[in-house]
Amino acid sequence: MVNRKAVFLLMIMIISLIGLQPDSTTKTVNAFSSQVIQHGAVGDDVIELQSRLQYLGFYNGKIDGVFGWGTYWALRNFQYEFGMEVDGLAGQTTKDKLVQASNYDEGFVKENINQGKDFSHYGGGDRNAQQQQGQGDQSGSNVTAVNVPQGYSQNDIQLMANAVYGEARGEPYEGQVAVAAVILNRVESSTFPNTVSGVIFEPRAFTAVADGQIWLTPNETARQAVLDAINGWDPSGNATYYFNPDTATSGWIWTRPQIKKIGKHIFCN
Amino acid sequence: MFRWILIGLLALGIAGTAFWGYMEHQEKNSILIQAENTYQRSFHELTYHMDLLHDQIGTTLAMNSSEKLSPQFVEIWRLTSEALTNVGQLPLGLLPFNKTEEFLSNIGDFTYRTAVRDLDDSPLTDDETSTLKKLYSQSGDIKDELREVQHMALENNLRWMDVQLALANEDEPMDNTIIDGFTTVEKSVEGYSEGYADSPIIGTSSEEHQYKHLNGKEIREEEALKKGMEILNVENQENLTIAETGEGSDIPIYSLSYQNGDESGYMDLAKQGGHPLTVLITRPIAENKISLNEGAEKAQDYLEKHDLDSMMLFESSEYDNVGLYSFVYNQDGVRVYSDAVEVKVALDDGEVIGLTARNYYMNHTERDIPEPTLSMEEAKEMVNSNVDIQEEFLAVIDNDLDEEVLTYEFLGVMDNDTYRIFINAMNGREEKVEKLDGTEINFAANF
Known about the structure:
In chain A, 45% of the residues lie in helices and 6% in strands. Chain A is mostly helical. Chain A has a 3-stranded antiparallel β-sheet with strand order 2-4-3, with helices on one face. In chain A, helix 6 crosses helix 10 and helix 7 packs across helix 10 (220-230). The longest helix of chain A has 25 residues, at 2-26. Chain A starts with a helix and ends with a strand. Mean pLDDT of chain A is 78; it is low at 17-29 and 125-140. Chain B folds into 3 domains: 20-190, no CATH class; 221-363, TATA-Binding Protein; 376-436, Nuclear Transport Factor 2, Chain: A. In chain B, 43% of the residues lie in helices and 23% in strands. Chain B is built from 10 helices and 13 strands. Chain B has helices spanning 2-61, 66-89, 98-116, 126-155, 160-168, 177-190, 221-232, 292-305, 358-363, 376-381; strands at 241-244, 253-260, 263-270, 276-282, 311-319, 322-331, 334-346, 352-356, 388-398, 404-414, 417-424, 430-436, 439-441. Residues 193-201 of chain B have low confidence and may be disordered. The chains are: A mainly alpha, B alpha+beta. Chains A and B meet through helix 3, strand 1, helix 6, helix 7 and helix 8 of A and helix 1, helix 4, strand 2, strand 3 and strand 4 of B. Strand 1 (145-147) of chain A pairs antiparallel with strand 13 of chain B, so a sheet runs across the interface.
């Protein structure tokens, strides 16, 4: 008797599962996760947000997976037009409205991003007309842009990471941030060059530059340290010089007022 | 006997020559590196200046008042001449690059002519504005291409010395990424028929002064250690290292740090009052579990817990599973930009892994903010009419003279670019215009 009941239940479950199957493939799945999406966010939710906004004609930029200013204004306009509270945040109500009003074919959008094609416009109509020729792309990520600090390019960050890695790769993390901060403090200072590359390549400024160690490939830690320094962290205490007391050859450097020692380096100004 | 002496002498001679040769080799290498560095510097500066030039031209488009425009044109003129100098220092001798140089000097000429003119009497004509727009998009193309060459050069460790060699050996087929890149730049310019970074506005007070907001008793080492254990989440006091700053430091600080496998932490604590100035925790960060938005709440809670009240979120962005948040002080609805705080939150479990509050403690005071004499509508009139204003705030900023001024802050859009414009709330002066970016094509993902 108990057995029969169990078999019966199992069959109901299987049937209901089968029943669900075709349903979920034909309908557009709501892929938005439950998170609130805000300015600066990165990822699949942003791709969906941008695609849906573009479908509705609010967003004309690139579908790149980074919530930048263009996406922000598009979202606000959407909220305004649909009579919602205009806050530039994609919360549950906003996302529901978006899903209601637009179609999103995740596979199609991502496939095209992966192939490196630019969308002229994602929306109804002939799909072939929506794509432009682009080069192939081997990377697996769908996000094709990155956040960078205001006023900096990835290349500036890379160059600084090279310098930090060459100068301080054995140092604790805060020591690496401090070295990056010194470079930036020098850019700010009136007695040093005004660009990052100017400071780094100033003759006799950094030993890693003079002996070619700057061209070693930096690791992720060095890059993180540079980002932190650019974003305002300065464990060096606003220093413009540092030296390794074991290897420093110049006596002059000892006369500078010292701030602190991090790892092997003494920071001073 | 004689034979052995001869062998000895010869051996000595060989050793001496070898040594001499080695020294020569070393010397040659170090000179090569130096020359290479000079080239690298010019190249990286060139790309940076082009980038800046593009941004500055863009900013010009959103400006309205002549007091702001003239200096801006001077700035652009200066940048073109810097960029031209950079081009001149590169070993491009045999490579045709003159179109690009011409383009640069055209921008220079144009801006110089406009800069010296009295823009009050004869403002920019429509023609000139459209020229500026064209220059803006063209400089954008050049900038992108140069940035791409730069990316490849950095990625593959390309040497300018090799470029020089490749250019000198004309018979060989030229196959060099840098040369190809520069040729592309030149090609794209042919198609046309004719210092400072845009610094983040927050915490801008470039003038160094005493810390204004460090209050409270001086704390002792034991108290500092206790505070450190709490903030850095360390259970055992023995694991913490503590150090004091030397005479060069602007204020006396305790620095605390710990190291535990691949996790480490560091913090600066002002002796006076025991306020945390810098906190940095490093550890491997797993996949995102919480959103950027939830992270913002964690950051806000954290600030309130550490006596940083009435801070409002001003900007957020996500880098490698870390949420970075900028907060500014909010005095009765007015954003005070110089009192800024940054917080980092790990988006795997929501732990706060970084704080920097130097700017806040350096600049913060309870300010006597006057009533604006201009209304919001009057201030809007002062903004370039091509800018479509979307958001408005009241804000206190440091102007070019490093004075704190009350302004209306407008966020607006013009031709897909977003601008932040500050209009003085007392006299209507255009205090600052900034073009906002903050995202970039991921070069690494495009190859």
